[in-house]
Automatic annotation (TrEMBL):
Protein's GO biological process: 'de novo' pyrimidine nucleobase biosynthetic process; pyrimidine ribonucleotide biosynthetic process
Cofactor note: Binds 1 FMN per subunit.
Major localisation: mitochondrion
Organism field: Vicia faba
UniProt-recorded name of the protein: Dihydroorotate dehydrogenase (quinone), mitochondrial
A GO molecular-function descriptor: dihydroorotate dehydrogenase (quinone) activity
Pfam families membership: DHO_dh (PF01180)
Keywords for the protein's UniProt record, in alphabetical order: Flavoprotein, FMN, Membrane, Mitochondrion, Mitochondrion inner membrane, Oxidoreductase, Transit peptide, Transmembrane, Transmembrane helix
Amino acid sequence: MAAWSSRKLLRDVFLKRGLLNRSSSVRGFSSAPESAPKIGYYSKKGRLLTGATLGLVIAGGAYVSTVDEATFCGWLFSATKLVNPFFALMDAEVAHKLAVSAAARCWLPREKRPDPPILGLEVWGRKFSNPVGLAAGFDKNAEAVDGLLGLGFGFVEVGSVTPVPQDGNPKPRMFRLRDEGAVINRCGFNSEGIVAVAKRLGAQHGKRKLDETSSTSNNEVKNGGKAGPGILGVNLGKNKTSEDAAADYVQGVHTLSQFADYLVINVSSPNTPGLRMLQGRKQLKDLVKKVQAARDEMQWGEEGPPPLLVKIAPDLSKEDLEDIAAVALALHLDGLIISNTTISRPDHVSTNPLATETGGLSGKPLFNLSTNILKEMYTLTRGKIPLIGCGGISSGEDAYAKIRSGATLVQLYTAFAYGGPALIPQIKAELAECLERDGFKSILDAVGADCR
């Protein structure tokens, strides 16, 4: 029956193309017009075509198999550049969600090449294979931690996470300033809440532990942190309608700190009313003391509690910076992230029609402002507190400038949104070249070089 069906289908195709008479038998096509080629001709042609195709596939596979893993990995990352124009055609927030979804499903390439040894460093007792991280705001709900770490980031920071789910501000709320390499957003801590994030991070943590237990080599050393090959930071926020900010952050600590390699108190977003008021000396001191107490009252193993950092805004006066530095030193804060987005609009941005949109500006126009704040804070804290430089980094030279200005680690966001995965190995390679060019043997040797 199957053979008959196949012959009938083939006969129908030939009839449709006028290569067979209606009176011809199905089996032999004996009545084909003299002008039509015989079936044997088409069978031979089909076999040749199939053979040629298989030959190309086999030859291509053989060639790929001879290419070393590093070269092949480089191809995959370079190939992601072909997708960038399609994302550019989409609404900014739609493109963002699609990118997170792709990372969550591990549709992005995985970095198989080792980082240059010169980029490795240890901070807070945690080993980073490189100092280049992904800033909070990209993966707000910890949906794609494994996929993002797999891209080769030294660390990934998720959040901001609020205790109770909230939708954030009305849409549209993300705007591209493409010519300036910038983005304005007023998302307003849109979050699925700490329960949803805790479930995802718990599953990730469990998988990591299972992989370690099932490792075939008992002597194998696992680099990275609680989420896998890289370090995981969790950025905590407060709900828009909450009247007790400290209680929100404490709740985040109690629920999520067990899954974090470091925690961040975000008091710097311009899109949550009253949030930046928490950067005042008294308010910040009271807040940090309560959050530190909540963290320290929990039971921890030999590794101890996760480091606690505060993320600050770039729109601060000299007096504000002095107050924050004093609090950080007095309370032995583990670090500061400098900085979040700015509400200012630099001259070269102000002419863009979208510059009138309210919200925080990120990307290249933020670089100078955030770097100057970074340098000032490094001086005020006398280099005693690790700083994470964030804002406007789009190249290895930019990352290097942040490090020379006092940053121990650096973070990307907007440039990654524009450049995609291919930007990560590029920045790391350029950064390694900068260090070697100036005679530094490690990242830590270069930290604060411009402030000495």
